Amino acid sequence: MKIIASYSIKGGVGKTTAAANLAWLAAADGRRVLLWDLDPQGGATWLFKVKAKVKGGGEALVAGKLDMADAIRSSDFDNLDVLPSDFSYRNLDLLLDAEKKPTRTLGQLLDGLSKKYDIVILDCAPSVSLVSESIVRAADLVLAPVMPSPLSMRTLDQLREFIGDTKGKSPKLLAFLSMVDRRRRLHKDLVDELPGSRPDVAKTFIPAASAVEQMGVHRAPIVQWQPRSAAAIAYQDLWREARKRLK
Ligand SMILES: Nc1ncnc2c1ncn2[C@@H]1O[C@H](COP(=O)(O)OP(=O)(O)OP(=O)(O)O)[C@@H](O)[C@H]1O
Ligand SMILES: [Mg+2]
């Protein structure tokens, strides 16, 4: 079982969109996939039309009072299950604070699922927190959308540092440029330069496309309902790159 975390310190950069599309593509590839929505906003849960309420919520899960298997829901798609988020996840930081009370790490919680799933994708809330540390420690690969901006190099360096500082095993990092508009000079320059100059940046970038925003209307990943669109093709390429790094 391999664990991919869709993570960034920043909000609104395309984490949930990437997590949803990659989860669907991995499932279509024949992998048994679990998408764990760790964001109290519950975007991924909503997108896959999964009922959010799980008895006891995140608290019961982390405290070991609720079995992971009982909290998992199936989606409308073969091979693709969702572990829904709910608003109790806003307290996840406190729950994971091992100094306050004995608690399970996300990694330990996921260990029990290793026979059931080939790929687990974690959709993370934007933050640098105990939850993010726990996520990074559990992950094999951190998939990080980066907006094309003059700050993107700095964002990447901060991510690298955060991953490097986290105790325990270090996951691989695969950053990718998100919401790229090649008509803009700066975007075009970054797309031309960044992937070649840094091994942790994917060759694939995700174009800005209004169709991607329509995912909320269709309530399904764009790779499912518009597979020949430029954005869907980009997600397919990104999945191929991510898959290679998992080996
Ligand atoms: N390639 C794209 N082109 C156009 N819009 C996009 C693209 N990717 C994502 N969006 C839109 O940008 C917004 C933020 O995307 P998303 O929710 O995936 O980001 P996020 O990083 O998960 O945000 P948060 O930090 O709030 O969890 C959404 O409205 C989404 O539809
Ligand atoms: Mg999100």
TrEMBL record:
Q: Which InterPro entries match?
A: AAA_dom, DNA_Partitioning_ATPase, P-loop_NTPase
* Pfam families, alphabetized: AAA_31
Highest rank taxon of the organism: Bacteria
Q: Which residues form the AAA domain?
A: 1-167
**UniProt protein name:** ParA family protein
Per the UniProt entry, what species is this protein from, by scientific name?
Answer: Janibacter limosus
